[in-house]
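Sequence design from tokenized structure. All designs in this work follow the same two-part layout: the structure record, then the generated sequence. An example of the structure record is given first.
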């Protein structure tokens, strides 16, 4: 009773517009089963309600960059994310009236800057934004764990004003602390394998390069989209680290093909730059490479950057050992 009263006091009640209901129903109609249709409808309502609220608060969003706006992702996954410009993906999880807790699918535990819970009434006419939490580790989220909506606005403001090129701290990886977006190779593999449109075809390559690493090796992977349609052929950047003697760390970088292509795009480059921005290692894919790699050693606190580029497009990740 106390939790319910607290939620009622802090929750924000918003109307669900006819346009929002129409879009949610349109997305639901594309689904193969009634159960999936209901899931997509509720997810879409939660995302659009939250999008309207952030627009009112003059916080820019990008619906089309969200997985929830991708028909393939809607079909293959239980996602309700909203891309907040210059911040990241905010997961907007719907709940029905009288549900005692909120379900957070494990597939949404990574690449999210936070989670909001949106309660949708039975008539789909109104929604309450109950609150938010910035991190989850279980599939059942108790309402008592939620912070008020005002705290979300402050939190998003802090993220928007923080440096955009945040350092990835590799030493923290050794204690199982990983930045958003960096997943295990296996989880990323399973995610891509579960989506027919990706037609993940580099299984032989991955097996040949021995992804079953010993305990002393830590490895994480991230999808890189170089402006190419992500359902077609994103590339996967894999970073592998292993501590050595004398405060040295061995680092191996690999760039793998994914999508419906066996090989990497011809000419795609994997480049390592030192702290001054000077190139000291690089590799370029030829016409029949399904992966390229670079290996080097560095010292604790040493900084470097990794750039993936193709023609005039490039994405750079910044690291500290």
């Amino acid at each position: 009773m106390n939790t319910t009263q607290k939620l009622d006091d802090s929750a924000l009640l918003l109307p669900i517009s006819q346009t929002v209901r129409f879009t949610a129903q349109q997305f639901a109609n594309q689904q193969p089963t009634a159960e999936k249709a209901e899931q997509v409808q509720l997810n879409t309502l939660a995302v659009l309600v939250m999008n309207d609220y952030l627009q009112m608060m003059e916080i820019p969003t990008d619906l089309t960059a969200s997985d929830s706006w991708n028909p393939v992702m809607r079909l293959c996954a239980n996602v309700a994310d909203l891309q907040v410009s210059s911040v990241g993906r905010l997961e907007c999880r719907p709940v029905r009236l009288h549900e005692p807790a909120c379900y957070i699918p494990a597939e949404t535990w990574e690449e999210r800057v936070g989670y909001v819970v949106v309660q949708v009434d039975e008539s789909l006419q109104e929604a309450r934004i109950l609150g938010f939490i910035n991190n989850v580790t279980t599939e059942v989220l108790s309402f008592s764990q939620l912070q008020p909506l005002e705290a979300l606005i402050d939190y998003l403001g802090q993220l928007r004003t923080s440096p955009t090129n945040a350092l990835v701290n590799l030493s923290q990886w050794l204690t199982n602390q990983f930045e958003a977006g960096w997943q295990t190779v296996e989880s990323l593999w399973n995610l891509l394998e579960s989506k027919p449109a990706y037609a993940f075809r580099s299984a032989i390559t991955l097996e040949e390069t021995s992804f079953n690493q010993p305990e002393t090796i830590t490895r994480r992977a991230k999808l890189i989209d170089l402006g190419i349609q992500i359902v077609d052929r994103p590339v996967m950047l894999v970073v592998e680290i292993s501590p050595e003697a004398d405060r040295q760390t061995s680092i191996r970088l690999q760039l793998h093909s994914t999508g419906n292509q066996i090989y990497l795009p011809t000419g795609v480059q994997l480049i390592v730059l030192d702290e001054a921005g000077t190139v000291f290692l690089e590799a370029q894919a030829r016409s029949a490479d399904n992966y390229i790699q670079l290996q080097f050693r560095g010292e604790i606190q040493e900084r470097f950057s990794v750039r993936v580029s193709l023609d005039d497009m490039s994405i750079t990740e910044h690291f500290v050992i």
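The CA atoms of residues 201 and 262 lie 6 Å apart. We note this feature because it recurs in several other targets discussed in the main text.
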